[in-house]
Write a structure and sequence with these properties.
The protein is of the alpha/beta class. It folds into two domains: about 150 residues, P-loop containing nucleotide triphosphate hydrolases (Rossmann fold); about 60 residues, no CATH class. It is about 35% helix and about 25% strand. It has a six-stranded mixed beta sheet with strand order 5-6-7-3-8-9, with helices on both faces. β6, α6 and β7 form a beta-alpha-beta unit. The two termini are about 30 Å apart. The C terminus is likely disordered.
Length: about 230
């Protein structure tokens, strides 16, 4: 997927992506300080926002092929199960009991499938939102700070689910996170943004371990995160 000369103005902020390549079948990380345009870009990709100018070549993907998870997931006033199968219903797909039970079992929610979804803990709600995003077989998944404020075990589960998915049937991911260790562990490519622009793109090692751009070095110093290991 290729983005070129993409512009979107919102108030005094302007997103301008001169060139960004999101190679299909890879896990892409999107990093940068608050307010740099990461979420605006994700909303343009999903069709929530319309660009003012520019081109997004999504290689034939439609909104039916794209899904997005957020830090604060929206859940229906219904059961865990009904929330899980919502994307299937919206696409006219028939739920498979074995498959839905397997997803719920993987996240420790099988015994809660008939429970009111909004009564789950915040971490359980995130897990439900994450598997709901995957259940219909999307081709592009945008993860917008979904892993923020999760405990280490939940973060590990999310990473395992992403990597398991890539081994079974590779899809394209764009994961937005301030947890740079997470990006280093799962991403094939990392894109770094500043003030509405992409200022660097490369492997996690190039961007997060040996950055050449001074803004990235300053950002990494502020995070006080070690990438050894």
């Amino acid at each position: 997927m290729r983005i070129s000369n993409l512009k979107k103005r919102m108030g005094t902020f302007e997103l301008w992506i001169e060139e960004m390549n999101l190679e299909s079948g890879l896990i892409h990380g999107l990093a940068g300080p608050n307010g740099c345009g990461k979420t605006t870009l994700s909303k343009l990709l999903t069709g929530i926002l319309t660009p003012d100018e520019g081109m997004m070549d999504l290689e034939g993907l439609t909104p039916r092929d794209i899904t997005m998870t957020s830090q604060k997931p929206y859940l229906l006033h219904d059961t865990v199960y009904e929330n899980l199968i919502l994307p299937l219903k919206l696409r006219g797909m028939q739920p498979d009991k074995e498959e839905t039970d397997a997803w719920l079992e993987r996240c420790g929610l099988k015994d809660k499938k008939r429970q009111y979804a909004r009564s789950l803990s915040s971490g359980e709600q995130q897990k439900l939102s994450f598997i709901r995003a995957l259940i219909f077989g999307p081709k592009l998944v945008i993860v917008d700070e979904t892993l923020s404020n999760l405990d280490p075990d939940s973060t590990k589960l999310f990473e395992e689910l992403m990597l398991e998915q890539q081994r079974k049937r590779p899809i394209t991911w764009l994961t937005i996170s301030h947890q740079l260790v997470h990006l280093k562990r799962v991403c094939d490519r990392v894109h770094f943004m500043e003030k509405g622009r992409q200022i660097a793109e490369g492997t996690p090692k190039e961007i997060l371990l040996n950055p050449s751009h001074p803004s990235i070095r300053a950002f990494l110093a502020d995070t006080e995160v070690s990438f050894r290991g």
